[in-house]
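Subject: Sanity check before I submit

Could someone independently write out the structure tokens for this chain? I want to compare against mine line by line before I put it in a report. The sequence has 224 residues.
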Amino acid sequence: MASKLIRYPAVNPVFFVGASAGGVRAFISLASKLPEDFPAPVFFLLHRLRESTVKPIGLLTALQSKSNLPVKIAKDGELVRSGCIYLPADNLNIGVDDNHIFHSELPNNETWRPSINFLFKSGAREYKDRAISILLTGKLDDGIEGMIETSIQGGITVAQSPDDAYEPHLPLMALMKDHPCYVLPLDDIPKLMCELTHFSHFHDQQAVLTESASAAKKLKKAVK
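---
Independent answer below. Compare away.
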């Protein structure tokens, strides 16, 4: 019976979701819409300046109160399991190696810690074509190099529609530098995530996948 409680991501994709400005509300929205039996691991990362004393007040508590999935601060050495949302520890980068979570203070020259780029790159190198990197609302460019690495490793990249984002600069940078596979509004991202895991939950999730792929192609041409 105990073995049924441990769901390993041996087949399903692994989702890495990054954001900056406006990210708290975006994460709460995603967590509240994913079904309780969602069959894949999910990492949420709101980047912060290295050694910053400013913390996203109540993020863990807010997510736990709204999410259908368990939400936790990841522990060093913990096995990655499906059906869970992981958050990084304070002032540490988070990555994955051999399907286990690790934290790191390195690199010392990184502006952000935790860094979206660090997580996306680590996830892409670990899971290859099973890695899915999703970049949401935000400023500056943390996460762009990670999305490029995801594409290089054969994974899937997703950006929130810039006109739907609280801060459009980060998803716009994704369109200019990486050319994501899918571009769509925040409310539709849980539907896309279900479709990418071949998990039927929303009645229109297949249409969302098709529409978001078409939107990505149109926006790529527009920003060239």
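---
OP: Matches mine. For the report I'm noting this point. The CA atoms of residues 134 and 158 lie 5 Å apart.
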